[in-house]
Specification:
Blueprint (H helix, E strand, L loop, with lengths): L2 E8 L4 H14 L3 E4 L3 E2 L6 E9 L12 E6 L2 H7 L3 E10 L6 H4 L9 H6 L4 E5 L1 H8 L5 H10 L6 H11 L5 H12 L4
Parallel strand pairs: 1-5, 5-6, 6-7
Antiparallel strand pairs: 1-4, 2-4, 3-4
Helix pairs in contact: 1-6, 1-7, 5-6, 5-8, 6-8
């Protein structure tokens, strides 16, 4: 059986690092893994999505609407933007941080209220947390991605040692300690 994870966010949030970590962990467990390139505006501020598919034999990393087992969202509005890609019974892990898109900044639109509550009202299992605060507690706002990987590490049923190894392989050595703290804080989130 093939499983699918979408990682969605805003350019500059570290979605690529997250997809590399997940891919590394899954490869270490013997899965065939396909990770997509970034789709969307990867410059800071634009919407970004990457796909990770894994299983016994994976032909393509592309995830169609209604196929994702999990969506990991680095920003609340991105969770809502991509919710149609989630399969029935799938789950969303989202950072509650709100990053205003250009139409909101220019006053042409308003940031939607109650995003997480509205997604839950659709019957979707949502784990929502303030990953930015946890990243800042670890020592840098740039570790939101690693906090979210800590949360997800509890959901995929893969040994913590595999995640630690992936973290050490994917994160630059000069920032490894702060990222270890961020991962631990995410892993400690009770879901």
């Amino acid at each position: 059986m093939t499983r699918s994870i979408m990682i969605v966010g805003v350019g500059g949030q570290g979605t690529l690092l997250a997809s590399r970590m997940i891919g590394s962990v899954l490869l270490s467990q013997g899965f065939d893994v396909k990770v997509s390139e970034v789709h969307g505006m990867s410059q800071r501020g634009g919407s970004v999505v990457t796909y990770v598919k894994y299983g016994e034999d994976v032909a393509s990393p592309v995830i169609e609407k209604g196929q994702a087992d999990m969506i990991i969202s680095f920003e609340a509005l991105e969770a809502a933007r991509w919710v149609s890609f989630l399969k029935k019974g799938g789950r969303i892990v989202t950072n509650t941080q709100q990053i205003e898109p250009m139409p909101v900044i220019t006053g042409a639109a308003e940031y939607p209220a109650d995003i997480v509550e509205n997604i839950r009202a659709l019957g979707i299992d949502v784990t929502a947390l303030d990953a930015l605060s946890l990243a800042e507690e670890a020592g840098t706002s740039r570790a939101v991605n690693v906090v979210l990987m800590g949360v997800v590490s509890n959901m995929l049923g893969i040994d913590e040692a595999a995640w630690t190894k992936a973290l050490e392989e994917c994160v630059p050595k000069k920032v490894i300690e702060v990222n270890r703290k961020a991962f631990a804080l995410g892993r400690a989130v009770r879901i």
